[in-house]
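Input chain follows. Return structure tokens only.
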Amino acid sequence: MFWLYAARVGAELLLRVGRPADAQQLYKAVVAAKTLPWAKLGVARAQLDAGQAAQANSTLENLISEEPNYADAYDVMGRAQFEQGRFDKALETYKMAAMLTPASISRLQNLAMMTYYAGDHAEAEKLLDKTTRLGLESKMFDPQSLVLLAFTRLENGDRKGLQRCHDDMARLIERFPDNARQHRLAGIVAALNLIQQHQFAQSVETVRAMAKTVDQSDFDFESASNLIALLAQLANKAIQLDEVDAVVDTIGMRFCSNRSLTELLAASATAHPPYAERMRTCQAKVLEYAETAMALSMAGNPTAAVKNLILHGRETHNARLIDNAHQVILKHAAKISNAQALDMEVQELRAIYGLANVKASLGEQKRQAGGLALRIGTKPTDKAASPTNPEPDAA
């Protein structure tokens, strides 16, 4: 009698452990039996996680036509459009989601961030300010909203407003002192506040310290977009770092894997258009590397293709090039000399610079649209186990 609920929990777990194809099968079984909206949405989520964006869009369009007031469907549709670089469509979708649920902090936040990345910073400032006033104490609030609000206030010369962003971020740090991400975001706001106060020498040193982290494995896409935006603000105010061009190119070569990621980074650099163009130039180079390897593979030399991709993947830390090397090995392993050794190299690079840190999102999503809130156990420690309690319960 509980099979539907069990199926939903099972599918949710499959999505979380990276098995979207299996999750999709389970959701489709529920759809076939009951045609429930959450199951159809689950199919779309699984398709999106599997990289099947076109199929996900089709599933979502059908679902929304049948259930036009199902707000979660708009959340997932907005995510799909955002990841595809269709920012105008994503903006319309997030507007609809926010209209359906005007009291939702997370949906107002998505709309505010999407408005910012779509280039309407004046409207974004209003929405981000509203999000902060209503949601700062909410567990659904994401501090990236404060970062973007700080950027808009620097652009507007709003000294007091920027100081409030700095103070609000300090309060968040007090509440979550061990959150590494919040400390990174607080550093961006602090640097913006220093620029606004004309403490340029100190701001340059702060940014220089951030620039030294661009090669680290935990330097993710969010960090890249925020640092590019900060460097663009410095350049806009004619504050130069000697190493800035190299940092911009390093970020571009690492993260400009496709058009949507490139345009997001370009949107972050609007304060200094030359940096936006550098992002597009980097994408063209990454595409050239990928096409060269593909040509080698199609010409019957997959070994050279893999070596080429490993070379450029190690040089740029670009996840797309590294993943392409993995795909070539999977497809042509029998034709590749020393395939096992090459695969070990690729797996090493994937572990450090894999696709996980490259995915773009509107902040850190506190809630998975259409998903279940699951309470999952933690692995028991050796200390917790004992002869009388060999398998401690997970809370």
